[in-house]
């Protein structure tokens, strides 16, 4: 499944993405800044070379995904 994680650069979102990528899902890490999403995706690929992961901005991530997960701190909601 293609899963977008909006707020995927934080600890919780990154952790969820890592576990889903390890289970074989395609992960799109979304961030307010596309560069930050891409950097988090590169970090995940370093830790989990077989991961199918990309990073981009939140809007692009949501548009590409089959499932969208919002992972932001409670105070930001």
Care to describe what's here?
The protein is α/β, with parallel strands linked by helices and 77 residues long. The chain has one domain: Rossmann fold (3-Layer(aba) Sandwich), CATH 3.40.50. Helices cover 43% and strands 27% of the residues. It contains three helices and four strands, in the order βαβαβαβ. It has helices at residues 11-22, 34-47, 58-64; strands at residues 2-6, 26-31, 52-57, 67-70. A four-stranded parallel beta sheet has the order 3-2-1-4.
In DSSP terms (H or I, runs of 4 or more residues), the helix count works out at 3
Quickly give the structural class.
alpha/beta
Instruction: Compute the number of strand runs.
Output: 4
Order of helices and strands: EHEHEHE
At the fold tier of CATH, the topology name is Rossmann fold
Beta-strand fraction estimate:
25-35%
Overall 3D shape: globular
Q: Look at the structure and give the CATH class.
A: Alpha Beta
Q: How much helix, percentage-wise, in residues?
A: 40-55%
| Spatial gap, N to C terminus | 26 Å
Major sheet: arrangement of strands: 3-2-1-4
Largest sheet: 4 strands, parallel
Q: Which residues sit in consecutive blocks of at least 5 with pLDDT less than 50?
A: none
**Gyration radius over CA:** 11 Å
CATH architecture: 3-Layer(aba) Sandwich
Number of domains: 1
CATH superfamily: NAD(P)-binding Rossmann-like Domain
Mean pLDDT: 96
Descriptive labels:
globular, four-stranded parallel beta sheet, alpha/beta, Rossmann fold, 77 residues, 4 strands
């Amino acid at each position: 499944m293609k899963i977008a994680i909006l707020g995927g650069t934080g600890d919780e979102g990154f952790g969820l993405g890592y576990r889903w990528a390890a289970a074989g899902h395609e992960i799109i890490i979304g961030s307010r800044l596309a560069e930050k999403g891409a950097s988090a995706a590169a970090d995940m690929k370093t830790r989990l070379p077989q991961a199918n992961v990309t990073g981009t901005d939140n809007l692009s991530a949501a548009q590409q995904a089959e499932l969208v997960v919002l992972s932001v701190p409670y105070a930001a909601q």
